[in-house]
Design a protein that fits this description.
154 residues; alpha/beta; 5 strands; globular
Amino acid sequence: MPKLNSQPVSEIQDENIFTLVGEQFEEVIFDDSKDVFIKFYAPWCGHCKCLKPTWDSLGDHFTDVKDQLVIAKLDATENDLPASVSFCISSFPTLKSKPAGSHNFIDYDGHCSLESLITFVKEKAKNSLTPKVKAPEQEAQATFAKPSEGHDEL
């Protein structure tokens, strides 16, 4: 079986956009518990560069529901798609959604404004995109766990 061209898997995912590589495509994208919205891009593409701040803002907007929704990006010039995927990337950027529990992709061909992208995600998602509320005791523990700033207790 031929090996997929893939960048190394990132050990740290500290942004609100998941940096996906070919080697982990199936594991991340076909996780049936999560909705996925992915941007396939090329680093040299002018339209991709223009979309980057909006895509980052989209990730920020949905940061509280990361356990239900993955906003991802994949450099399609450095990473192959697995044979299990029924499409090819022929233009940049290409935006696709994959609802939770499905292996079918939905093309996004609307306007690339933040509002349009948010509306699309909400319309296509199978999961609730309402952040889960922490229990009051978790909130209290989080408050008391913070070190006091500039106060010396006797």
